[in-house]
Amino acid sequence: MNPRKNLRCDLHIHSCLSPCADLLMTPGNIIKQAVKAGLDYIAITDHNSAGNIPVARKLAERSGIKLIPAMEVETREEVHLLCYFPSLEPLQEMESIVAQNLPDLQNDEEYFGYQLLTDINDQYIAKEERLLAAASMLTFTEIVETATKLGGVVIPSHVDRKSNSVLTHLGFIPPNAEIKVIEVSPNTDPVEFLRIHPELNQYMYIQGSDSHYLDDIGRCSRAGGFVINDQLHSLLRSIL
Ligand SMILES: [Zn+2]
Ligand SMILES: [Zn+2]
Fold first, then answer.
1. Who is most buried in 49, 53, 123, 229, counting CB within 10 A?
2. Sign of torsion, CA 212 48 222 160?
């Protein structure tokens, strides 16, 4: 990719594997909607799992959109961390480490929702029985170190939110953690947010939609997806 071109992205989307996401959030539907929204890059970031990513990668290749292998991991402190990888293999390695550290709880479909895997024809083929929307036993530091060692980039999710954010649950971003970018929710003006949090000025930010419904894909405080500029591009170049 040409680093001088501004790229539109939405790097925080949940598929139907996340129990909280709409059943229409199949990888095929997500990619169609992302193309419609004019996005160059997307990431499907399901809770503690990458089960739909291999299929989504194949579908994305066909449509000309770039899908970054990713997942949203919940730390022991209940902080959500977006973990992005340059290819499928390190993502799947991360997924298996997280799986070994998830509590052994069954999903209650009526309470949490379905956790569905799909095939290349965008049909549901299986259910994940284990509850994915739960805190893993790995700490913030362990997740960041593990993902970084695998060549990944970690971005704390929705730092402006009260729930599952590093600022609420830890109170600060550990200064020695390999964090260069944070995510701000689409409903928050990031410039205003950083003005009231000058301690975060050293970080660059992205805005992901955290979509659980198709219509939300590409949503950020400015319409049409978040734009990756040159500076951010060079910080994220290992995954873009
Ligand atoms: Zn989250
Ligand atoms: Zn999310």
1. 53
2. positive
